[in-house]
Amino acid sequence: MSRIKNAGWLLPGLAVVGLGVLAAWHLVTAQPPTVLPAVPLTTAQPPANDFATVMAKMKAAKPDIAKKHNDLLAARYDLADRADAGTKMTRGKPVQQGPRTKLPAGTTWAALGGMTPDQIREKGAFPAGFLPLPHPNHPEGGMLFPKFHIEEVKKQEGRDLTRFDLDFDLPDHMLPEFPPPMFLTTRLDLGDVSKGRLVTIDNFNELFKDILNPKQLEGLRLLVTPFPQQQFNATEDRRSEKPHRGVVCFDCHVNGHTNAATHLVGDIRPQDFRHRIDTPSLRGVNIQRLFGSQRALKSVEDFTEFEQRAAYFDGDPITATKKGVNILERGSQVHFMGEFQALLDFPPAPKLDIFGKLDQAKANDSEKRGEAIFHGKAKCATCHPAPYYTDNTLHNLRTERFFKPITVNGRTANTDGPIKTFPLRGIKDSPPYLHDGRLLTLEDVVEFFNLVLETKLNEEEKKDLVAFLKCL
Fold first, then answer.
1. Is the backbone peptide bond immediately before 99 cis, with ω within 30 degrees of 0?
2. What are the residue ranges spanned by the domains of the chain?
3. For residues 170 and 149, what is the distance between their CA atoms, to the nearest angstrom?
4. Which of 7, 106, 456, 469 has a CA-to-CA distance to 421 between 20 and 30 Å?
5. Cα separation, 139 vs 111, whole angstroms
6. Average of per-residue pLDDT values in the chain
């Protein structure tokens, strides 16, 4: 208390100091402003990482990056166009035949099938094409679209999905037909409601205004509306030459199906462990209970919101904000989009009965034998039961039993982890296969699972199994 009382002498002094400060401030502000000399604009230098410089460097590096990746594909696969004359996709595109995965020198499929996982691992005999498939430039990643899709979108909308740094890698004959047909659970009588056209913002209303209710039509509009994305946006770290409106959900899930567009998963780090994505079909989402190849999202609405808010931007919400993420309203917009997606149906399967089994009067002997193998020796039905050929869960195939960890072109192959059981209905329309597209044909699928599940199928059993899969 005495200290406080004795401090009274400070108050007059503070007042004097305060008046002095005010006077000094008045004198300073009363002076005329200092005029700095103008700096000529011509002396300003662009930053070392400006857009034009980055684009020029990436364009210059593009040929070498493409060659490195194409050499990997050529070493792993036979990419020749050899179609099965007797099997076509729903709109008539020929289905490629034969296993395309190249075997190690001196090895046969039969010999591999007789080896244990430990023997295959120690001998380094696991086919390289069965290892995880890298992105065309794995350290860079990002959305990448087939040329035929880029050209049609440019023609209809003037929106250019070309990347100046990368091109899509797999040849057209290994991909789904384009544009794929679209079937609706509510109007099966109409057949292909897309009428052989790529559904876009330019034609969706014309095609669907009389067959959808207003909510469903609005959901479809949002699915074909461009939104900013990591590589396609208006910022200077984009991968399109010009500022971009963005991508649409149906740029990958074309007509509610797929064009095999690729990307990297957004929820794994570091970069070399991220999985390449082979875009899955949205056909039959109404019967599915999990969404995303490994994310196990619990509804198509969760999937829709996650993709647009997070996967579009590699799981980086800060970058998403910078690039202009469009936050969809969950109670209406996401709901409308989910409601439309739930209408997407599988293509017709004339040889299946109402239980999803072969109609014995329509199937040939090979297909019947293949069905018995599918439900028996091959163990396929353990995870893919009829009628839709999915158990709506995840399974870990533990492929790491067959190979030693290795990094190839920036992608570290060690484990795949749990993978969603995708429906097999309409499977012949959806090449390439597995979650990252590493399996190019149905024959590759059969050879892969024959090894991984250790089912020891003989050559005739494999052929019959493929014949059955083509009926689904």
1. no
2. 51-469
3. 13
4. 456
5. 36
6. 91
